[in-house]
Structure formats: C-alpha cells, structure tokens
Amino acid sequence: MMVAGIGSRKGVSAEDVLAAIETALEAHGLAMTALSALATAAPKRDEVAIAAAGSALNLPVIIVDDAALRGVSGETLSHSDLSQEVAGTPSVSEASALAVVGTGARLLGPRIVVGPVTCAIAISGDAP
Predict the structure, then answer these.
(1) Coil/strand/helix, residue 98
(2) What does 25-71 look like in DSSP terms, one character per residue?
(3) Under-50 pLDDT residues of the chain
(4) At residue 67, what are phi and psi to the nearest 5 degrees?
(5) 2-123, what's its fold?
C-alpha cells in the first residue's frame, strides 16, 4: 500500500494539490499509478481541492482523526509549529500518510513542500 498524505493552507486549488503529489512521487521515482489513496487530517475535511484531487486521480481521500494522527506523530520526519498548533501533529502530510498505511508504515522521506501544499509518501512495510 502506498499513500500520499496531504497538508495545505486554506483555499488551495486542486492543481496545487496535484502538483505537490506529482512532485513528491517524482522525488522518489514513482508513478501516480502506484498510489492507493490520499490522506489528510480532520481539519482539512472541507478542503475542496483535496477532494477534487482524489476525484481527478480516482483515489479515495481518507480523513484521519486526531487520535490516529497523534499516535504516529513521533514517527514524522518534519516539524511545523503551525501544524502542531492546528492539528496536534508536527506534520499533517506525514502523519496522515503513516496513519492510513498502518502497522509497519514508513515514510519514503520528509514531506515535499510545493507552494501552499505539502505531500508525504508512506508505504507499507512489505512494499519495495
């Protein structure tokens, strides 16, 4: 399983989200078709651009609750004071991806920042 975790400022466009996902995948030499899902934190539930990106990619967008984010926050590689304050995790994108992949999840690297959007890729322990 491979999940793209998404964090963003308010009011971003679907194009912004898609660009961040594409940039993160390219940084790891991966294709968009490798993704199983998108993930984000509950405060981003109403962010239309994230849902639109999921629709454009024909991928589910999984909303991660606060408890699950906190449960994996110690495994994130990046730290944003704003993310910590608003979502209770040092990185919304990284924690969201890790939480959705579940047990044995690992990040391929720190989140990628593309303008107002962050994206982190997490894979299951048995993925290459």
Answers:
(1) helix
(2) HHHTT--GGG--EEEEEGGGTT-HHHHHHHHHHT--EEEEPHHHHHH
(3) none
(4) -65, -40
(5) Nucleotidyltransferase; domain 5 (3.30.420)
